[in-house]
Design brief:
Layout: H1 19-32, H2 37-57, H3 63-78, H4 88-99, H5 115-127
Helix pairs in contact: 1-4, 2-3, 2-4, 3-5, 4-5
Protein name: DUF1232 domain-containing protein
């Protein structure tokens, strides 16, 4: 298992992610730059509605972990003006990563489908000095 580490100015990049997660986050950050934080938060809410519907069809979809991720996203949205400028593109990217269906793990196929989303969220929250919003997926294992 290779964890991606940035050796040059790590304070500018989320750290502790797997290489594939980091690569997808970079792409998501670029895609998310076209949207405001309000638009991304609205997309998050629409995606969470989709998650709740999927959970009704498949109880293995970890709606509790998804809810915790959404709560952290809403907290970042509410505190957006206090987020360091260098962290904002990464925070937008973490939101896009969450609402992407083609991320590291399929969100709707297993109870661990949101674990990669939580890892990306946590890495970006730490970069934004909001580690208080980080979540432990193991706290949400019960679906």
């Amino acid at each position: 298992m290779t964890v991606y580490k940035e050796y040059f100015m790590p304070e500018l990049f989320p750290t502790g992610l797997m290489r594939k997660e980091f690569d997808i986050l970079i792409k998501c950050s670029k895609n998310a730059s076209a949207f405001s934080i309000d638009e991304l938060t609205d997309k998050t809410d629409l995606y969470f509605d989709k998650i709740k519907s999927a959970h009704k069809e498949n109880p293995m979809v970890n709606v509790n972990l998804a809810c915790a991720i959404v709560s952290s996203i809403h907290a970042i949205h509410a505190d957006w003006r206090n987020i360091p400028e260098m962290a904002k593109p990464w925070c937008k990217g973490m939101i896009q990563y969450f609402i992407e269906t083609a991320d590291e793990d399929d969100d709707f196929l297993s109870p661990t489908g949101f674990d990669d989303d939580a890892a990306v969220l946590n890495a970006c929250l730490k970069l934004a000095d909001r580690a208080d919003l980080c979540i432990d997926p193991e706290d949400y294992d019960e679906c």
